[in-house]
Sequence to fold (306 residues):
Amino acid sequence: MDLEDATRVNICELGYLIVGTTDLGRWHDFGAQVLGAQVLPGTEDTVRLKIDDRASRLIVRRAAEDALASSGWMVEGREQFQAAVRELESAKVELRRGSASECTVRAVTEFVTFQDPSGQVHEIAWGPISDFVPFRSPIDVSGFVTGALGLGHVVATAVEHFDATAEFMTRVCGFSLSDILHLPIPGLPKPARVYFYHCNNPRQHSYALAELPGPATCNHVLLQVANLDDVGRGYDRAASKGVRLVTTLGRHVNDEMFSFYMKSPGGFDIEYGYGGKTIGDWSRNVVFETTRGSHWGHIHLPQGNT
Ligand SMILES: [Fe+2]
Fold:
């Protein structure tokens, strides 16, 4: 480890997500009956979704709007956390330390929270607290691919502050570029930029920033299931339970994920996928640019399609 690595923010995984909702009941049903997550006992203001042996990976809480509230990024331990805090403070990032009760909700030892230049909220935490109770899907999803790869990925949008956010996420938060997509959007004069980033694990991307029209927000969250049939059955469940399907099935060119997109009760989409690419040696990765997101499929469906 060189001196720069010892002092920079060194995120090792997307650990958890905090989701705000106006309707906890919809998340309860969507989480259990569409995603196949375990709904754990929460409080009257919280639904906790368990997808692996962590306490919970998605924490849904009552709020004034349906939106992703924050992304929880993990570092390996206390020293890495302290180094991250120092780095963020030296970059003049306004930090707030999480309270003991907030740590309990997230099942982490310590965290800080802050905004990126587009106003989206991130948290850096260490020390996941787990009872290691094995995951058991209520509808027999065979499993979610998490572990060292983290819970999946988050794709955020920003237009006005796209460049500042991209700079912040790399220079301050330590993400590294995996690839760039120039995505043609009907009605836009030029393709939208989508920058895909990895952190310190083999998942091809854990975060991406897309220059898509509209307010800065979360575009989608990926959850990766353990086999191809889990994706197909998820597609069937979404269609049969009135969940809006956003795209058809398809396979992405960058992380090779076989997946589809559906609208969650959180306003953002859930990409439900299988077979994501991993990269064991990032020093040998060549950043590439693409002009299409998928080898095939992922065709956007008209709104109202179920
Ligand atoms: Fe994705």
